[in-house]
Amino acid sequence: MAVDSKYYVHSSDKAALQALKMIPGFHHFVKGFMKIWSERQFRISNMSSCIRMSDTQLKKYYDMLPPICEKLGIEVPELYLQLDVSPNSYTSGDTKPFIVITSGLFETIPEELIPTVIAHECGHIACHHMLYTTMGNILLGGTTSALRSFVPHGGLATMPLEVAFFYWMRCSELSADRAAVICDGTAEKMSEVCMRLAGYDKDINAIASKEEFMRQTQEYREMVKGNAWDKTLEFLTLSRMSHPLMTVRALECEEWANSEQFQKILDGSYLLDEIQEDVEDNDVEEDAVREEKKGRPKFELPKLKRKSKAEDSVEANEQLGTVSIPDEIRKYKELMDEGIITEEEFNAKKAQLLNL
Fold this sequence. Notes:
There is one protein chain. This protein folds into 2 domains: 5-267, no CATH class; 305-356, no CATH class. Helix content is 64%, strand content 5%. The protein has helices at 11-22, 26-36, 39-49, 59-62, 65-72, 103-108, 114-126, 130-140, 145-148, 155-184, 188-198, 210-225, 228-238, 246-257, 260-267, 269-293, 309-320, 325-337, 343-353; strands at 51-53, 78-82, 89-92, 98-102. It has a 4-stranded mixed sheet with strand order 1-2-4-3, sandwiched between helices. α7 (114-126) packs across α10. Mean pLDDT is 80; it is low at 278-323.
């Protein structure tokens, strides 16, 4: 059974996204982005300059993808290999997300860690990061001149927006790391990925100790936690970075793997907890009815909003990682209600989704 991202998304991820949406100029930026961005541009670029993996192309690596997608409850995205000496992987898009792995990554980490990297990227999709991640990459990647024209007061006004995007993107990586830990069943591989990307190239002819690397991460945490100036230096170091420091990520993964929440996901007992909560809710309601029949004062029950069949369908699709047409229409309706897009733009998008 697929694990819903609501059980593992990092609390910092949620808080940072909420803070990002509160930044002045955010809605203007979204409106400008939606006007000039086309997801199809990405596919044209990938299809023309990368190698698409499939059942008949680099099958060994492609076959790592479907089981991970099943575990996280998402559709299988397109997977590309890009010629780039820098070890990297990234996911982009929105309704049709895709994953790109660079040739440099294959040269840096052992082959047995490739599924962990793929699971991390799939975690971004499962956590619904893709739209804002794509926006952030475009805003922070130096192609902002057109978008800045949609933000009042130009470039100066985008500075808080850029800092907020950087912060949220760092926090979102922690959620994706947790998805990789869930797929592996342990933090061992994700911690090793961090150590490899921190400098331990697979071609280095020496033995590195993961235990010593984890001690280093603890020492780093104590260093910045106990000194205000070191904490300030850390902030200045991170303020323009889209990813957390490797030591921080490794430590977060280890702590997550040792948490009660992770153990419940691993053994499936988190589902029993959810069922028990439903049973307790039903018991409370039945007790209220019995008390009322006996003529005793009835205590107030919390008012629960009943979901329509359409809402249930949308929720089910979200849990499966699929995109439903009603859900997409609601998303654009919210953008129209908030003044981010016009009614004309909403109607055009609605017609497109319904194939009218």
